[in-house]
Amino acid sequence: MAATFLVLAAVMAAEPAAAGKLEWLSRPRARDIAECIPGVLPRGDHAIQLHCVTAPGDRLENCRVEAATGKVHPKVERAALCSAKYFRMRATDRDGQVVLGAPASVPLNFSRP
Questions:
Q1: CA 34, 39, 45, 51 torsion-angle sign
Q2: The CATH number of the domain where 81 resides is what?
Q3: pLDDT tens, position by position, 18-47
Q4: Angle at CA of residue 30, ends 17 and 87, nearest 5°
Q5: Residue 63 falls within a domain, yes or no?
Q6: 108: helix, coil or strand?
Q7: Does residue 53 form part of some domain?
Q8: How many domains are there within the chain?
Q9: CB atoms within 10 A of CB 64
Q10: In a domain, 1, yes or no
Q11: Secondary structure of residue 106 in the 3-state scheme
């Protein structure tokens, strides 16, 4: 039986792209995240923050774990890094031009009762 879990995601720009903006275009659905979870996650709440950069096609790349609450369980880390492929985000400058390589911090919360 599949474990019940909840994943929440928000975005914070580490530095706005040349005083422009960082905009969510889409976030993963629960079934997308479920594909990233290797087996059963450990019980409890697991907060992790990814640091990524914007890339062509409104994707995020070069993601790494930037911060976490407590020691990061390897399954939670793998799930967070895998889920990054489902995020779509666009950074633009003041003139509305797309900026590649803009930093983005993506906080994720995995919760399993």
A1: negative
A2: 3.30.2420.10
A3: 557 888 898 888 888 888 887 777 788 888
A4: 20
A5: yes
A6: strand
A7: yes
A8: 1
A9: 10
A10: no
A11: strand
